[in-house]
Amino acid sequence: MLTQNELKKYVTYDPISGFFLSNKGSKYSNRNKGDRVGTLHKTKGYRYICVKGKTYREQRVAFFWMTGEWPKFQVDHINKIKDDNRWENLRDVPPIINSWNRKKHRDNTSGYTGVVWHKSLKKWQVLCRSSGKQTYLGVYENVHEAGKIATEWYSENR
After folding, report:
1. CATH for the 107-156 domain, from 2.60.40, 3.40.50, 1.10.287, 3.30.730
2. Residues of the chain with pLDDT under 50
3. CA torsion, points 38, 39, 45, 48, in degrees to nearest 10?
4. N or C: at which end does the chain have fewer Cβ atoms within 10 angstroms?
């Protein structure tokens, strides 16, 4: 298991930029001192770093660098930008909290979480979920009215 001291031998973390920089050339790296290390995964959007032959997500290594402990849950990017590993943008949260901070799904037609089109009624239906339970909050003519109801419910139930 990688220790914080070992990590700091190989890389330096800049909490303001979120970048990892090489401390020295070593048998584990072909980088010069001060070079940015890590790579961006083309499809996942996260940055990865290899230390002592093992690959880690950069946001987890940043958390370990700053606190001396590996995150207990998932490291969430507050601004939803997966490769923005500035310390102010990272937080250790349970999976349910992390899922609330996702971008809207590409097939979301309403623009609101919990608001779906009810085809047979030709109205917007509000179905909100929390802790695995779904709550029905009615149907509405106007998508913005339905969105307001859903937004209020989620702000009270998170």
Report:
1. 3.30.730
2. none
3. -40
4. N
